[in-house]
């Protein structure tokens, strides 16, 4: 599996493109907002000659879904997210208005992702990790063979997800970090929803928010 990052929209959100060994592609958290961001994505897909098969969301905060409608309508692919993200997804237009963003609602999930389920990208195992706290239905996508984790807004380099947002909860987030994220091997590479990648071991040793958990 190959992973590529596109930094998008005013919130510098990380949109990820995952390419399987047979040319199947997933996009995770498409935050495309400007025409130039969309064209860059289209050019990359064309150059790689890959087939986009789905949109997978770690969660449905507005900065992670700004490009969902465009991707879904352009490439005719379904959307997948956890059922507990439905309420946030439903009110995304109101959040966009509050933040001064232009937003067109995307399609509803073709089906909901389930905690602990196993997906496959061209035969490679993808584990859906249920890690609520930043949002109620937040998930991460873990690739044990590649030792990579797309963590969304749960864990960042030197920080953790915002737990003061509506429907967020500090204790739930810390439990997700303690009982799920930090059980992964130290050499797991973490690709977060914002900022640069890191490693589980590095965060375990240096992240001030993880001290003592």
In brief:
The chain is built from six helices and 14 strands.
The level 1 CATH classification is Alpha Beta
Summarize the amount of helix as a percent range. Answer: 10-25%
- Residue stretches low in confidence (pLDDT < 50, at least 5 long) are none
> CATH superfamily, called what?
Ribonuclease Z/Hydroxyacylglutathione hydrolase-like
Reading side by side through the largest sheet, how are the strands ordered? 1-2-3-4-5-6
**CATH architecture call:** 4-Layer Sandwich
Could you tell me the radius of gyration in angstroms? 16 Å
- Biggest sheet architecture: 6 strands, mixed
- Form type: globular
Category by helix and strand content: alpha/beta
Beta strands, count: 14
Instruction: Please count the helical segments.
Output: 6
Order of helices and strands: EEEHEHEHHEEEEEEEHEEH
Walkthrough of the structure:
With 213 residues, the protein is of the alpha/beta class. The chain is globular. It has a six-stranded mixed β-sheet with strand order 1-2-3-4-5-6, with helices on one face. It is built from six helices and 14 strands. It has one domain (2-210): Ribonuclease Z/Hydroxyacylglutathione hydrolase-like (Metallo-beta-lactamase, Chain A, 4-Layer Sandwich), CATH 3.60.15. Helices cover 24% and strands 30% of the residues.
């Amino acid at each position: 599996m190959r992973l590529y990052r596109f930094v998008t929209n005013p919130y510098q959100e990380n949109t990820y493109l995952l390419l399987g060994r047979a040319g199947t592609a997933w996009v995770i958290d498409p935050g495309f907002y400007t025409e130039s961001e969309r064209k860059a994505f289209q050019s990359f897909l064309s150059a790689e000659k890959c087939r986009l098969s789905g949109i997978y969301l770690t969660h449905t905060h507005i900065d992670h879904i700004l490009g969902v409608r465009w991707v879904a309508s352009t490439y005719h692919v379904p959307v997948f997210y956890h059922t507990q993200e439905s309420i946030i997804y439903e009110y995304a237009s109101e959040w966009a208005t509050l933040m001064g963003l232009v937003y067109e609602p995307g399609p509803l999930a073709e089906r909901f992702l389930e905690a602990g389920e196993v997906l496959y990208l061209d035969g490679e195992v993808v584990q859906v990790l249920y890690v609520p706290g930043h949002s109620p239905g937040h998930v991460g996508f873990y690739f044990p063979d590649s030792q990579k984790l797309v963590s969304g807004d749960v864990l960042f380099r030197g920080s953790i997800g915002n737990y003061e947002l509506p429907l967020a909860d500090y204790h739930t987030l810390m439990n997700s970090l303690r009982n799920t994220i930090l059980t992964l091997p130290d050499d797991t590479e973490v690709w977060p929803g914002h900022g640069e990648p890191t490693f589980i071991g590095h965060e375990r040793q240096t992240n001030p928010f993880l001290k003592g958990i």
